[in-house]
Amino acid sequence: MSKIWKFDGLLLNEGWMCPCYVTTNEQGIIEEIADKNTSSSAVIEVVSGYAIPGFQNAHSHAFQYAMSGLAEIHPDPTSADDFWSWRETMYNIALSMDPDQFEHIATMLYAEMLSHGYTHVAEFHYVHHNKDGLRYDHLAEMGTRLIAAAQTAGIGITLIPIFYQKGGFGQAPGFKQKRFISATAKDYLELLSASEEATKNYSRSNVGIGIHSLRAVDQYAIQATLAETKRLPIHIHIAEQLKEVEDCLAHYQQRPVEWLLNTFDVHSHFHLVHATHLNKKEISGIAQSGAHVVLCPSTEGNLGDGIFPLSTFQQQGGQWSIGTDSHIGLNPLEELRMLDYGQRLTTHRRNQFVSYANGDSGLFGLDMAWKAGRKAMGNQEEAYFAIGQSFDAVVIDSQTPHIATSSPQHILATLIYSGDRSSFKGTLVRGIWKAKDGKHVSFDSILSQYKKTIAKLKIR
Ligand SMILES: [Zn+2]
């Protein structure tokens, strides 16, 4: 039976429809969008809120959620504390988890993502093998657990099994990387195919291709992988750290993005994660290629990566999405404003986002992150809401002090520059509430399982 939702407003690509009635079928697919109720018989749910499309989290390493805050205590002030020391802590945690524990952590994380307004996540997944570094009987065992976690929480997932071959440019993998490794492109393509098979169990899942970084996979293996896989989104960590740029210069005599652009046919299916350290030519090169950048400001800030040259990139038509990466922060509003504030702080100017959207920074940030985010998931649709699409939305509470007193034109900027999780009434996926009033609908049972898992791991 159809159901009608009444909202104070629904954000369409052409602007707000206020009020708005959305009709969904039993599968949560949109059948009608109208500014008045056209049915006298359907069940109606009146929601005091403004619905916007669910946020797209284009970069996640689920297991790292369990280490949030653990790498922030530094008893020895004489030792270096940087990305590379953080990586040691991360490796130790990656080595410690069995598949059940991995799944419970991911389930908690995805439940929390839903309560923050994300409805889809791209999982950049590289912990493939058992604790001894041997293949599981089911090659994509760990990826299957991520899909199961997404299904339990109710979030859409793009599983990106990661090709991880080396310990650094021209170096054999290290002992602590043993769970990550595919020795050859053939090994990786087998893993990709097993992962694709695993997505058949959950209708809201699909796969992408992942190259961990230029330091982790050699040129010929990247070539062989890309030759086999033309239709999928391609994710790669690139130029996150200065040391990575120096190592790439030493190995290839070119900077990472420079080398990538000179060596491969980089196009709109590429999603370059971080891309922090770029010269002017590289910025133009990415923008002209149509490739996207995935930015993770809270993690990049936490790791001391650097600030992506967003304003220059955008002036050249560059496109970007956001991700929560290590999950030190899970708030999409914070990711967007940190991105903008990084530019404001370095240029001493305001409104660094706006190049269209009638000067509305809030709308611009939301639109860019959503559209590029959808592409990062392998989905080309551009309509926020349309007949025939799944009804996935996050609903802004109409009764917070700022929203209750705002005209529709100020709602998005108010949300993005002053909001947090308490600004949301809830998150809908396929026309079902997955989170309400700041909590996932199964929060208590998921938390209980998560607490047991963390207690067993003894990491916190
Ligand atoms: Zn990452």
TrEMBL record:
Its cofactor is Zn(2+). Signal peptide: none annotated. Residues 51-429 form the Amidohydrolase-related domain. One of its GO terms (molecular function) is formimidoylglutamate deiminase activity. Pfam families: Amidohydro_1. Its EC number is 3.5.3.13. Keywords: Hydrolase, Metal-binding, Zinc. The keyword Nucleotide-binding does not apply. Gene3D superfamilies: Metal-dependent hydrolases, Urease, subunit C, domain 1. PANTHER family: AMIDOHYDROLASE-RELATED DOMAIN-CONTAINING PROTEIN, GUANINE DEAMINASE. This is Formimidoylglutamate deiminase. It comes from Reichenbachiella carrageenanivorans. The lineage of its organism: Bacteria, Pseudomonadati, Bacteroidota, Cytophagia, Cytophagales.
